[in-house]
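Subject: sequence -> structure tokens, single chain

Hey, anyone have a minute? Need the predicted structure for the following. Not urgent.
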Amino acid sequence: MTGKKIFCFCFAAFCAALFFPVRAAADGEPQVSARSAVVMNADDGSVLYAKNEHERRAIASTTKIMTSLLTLEAAAVNNKTVTITADVIRVEGSSMGLKVGDRLTLHDLAAGMLLVSGNDAANSAAVAVGGTTDRFAAMMNAKAAALGMKDTHFVTPSGLDDDNHYSTAYDMALLADAAMQNGDFSQIVSRKSMRIQYISPNTSRSFQNHNKLLRLYPYCDGVKTGFTKKAGRCLVSSAEKNGVRLIAVTLNDPDDWKDHEALLNFGFSSLTSHKIDDSAYRVEIPVVGGERSRVPVSGASAGSVVTRSEENLTRTVELPRFVYAPVETGQVLGRVRYVCGGKTVAETELAAAGNIPGTVPQKNWLQNFWDGIRNLFSFH
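Reply:
Had a minute. Here:
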């Protein structure tokens, strides 16, 4: 091969690597452009892949995951109507277009901040729930502490840049996992678009979700985008496939959509969901001292459990060789234990499927004789 051809080949290879980056390393782990990243098994919180996951960074509008979660929790108690004032909408950045005098419920303000990342909605909800944005920030930090977010500190409800406003990829995964367990939150973030009803003026507006991953990745069902110059592109996502749920986070990531596809694909290839169902289990065990000599035993269902794909799940039935009467229907007699990696990950109960009364012992002649003597000298 001539020198000119060698140069052309190497230049073409360089361009291919530049514009079409490899998404997985030789060992199967994804290669991402993000400064920080994590993908988590939502079933047990275990980390499947991480890159600088505990490094504190600006998080931009992914902050609104916390803001909306607190707002929706407050709305579940009292979904009060909020009147928009000038001070709460005087904020830079993305907006849902609120105007002074508009009236919306807390739930709909949460939808506005999640769908189109409305800073005006975040500020309005924060003041309505906390009284002031500072007091609401204290609520945010208290919630973060309760969730185990050890490297997080909130200052604003919107996520605008502040040196004291930060989190980590790992902490944001913890937050997203908790938020997705809130039914109202998960319902909103899974929508590609949503129509929000205003109380005043009496109108409704349709908003498109900024999270393009809902359209790009078939298993995605949330969560939130974010961007500022300091934070870069930030993305928190949730996805569910075949009984496995994942949370992925990238911070300061110029190629977040593709990176999340790679992270989620890796996560799904790493985990397997097992259905734990012993409801069809039937067996009989001996009964001592009962009107019948055997009692039927039936099993139960316990949902599902997620394990690493390379790990074996072992099932062990634990039942006594016999039981003593009386036995009552529903009485737990044993269990089925599921073990993975040396740890019990699931159990089902094995219960009696019938009543077995104890037999009344027959008295011998000596017991009858002494009973007669006692009755002869007893006083009534």
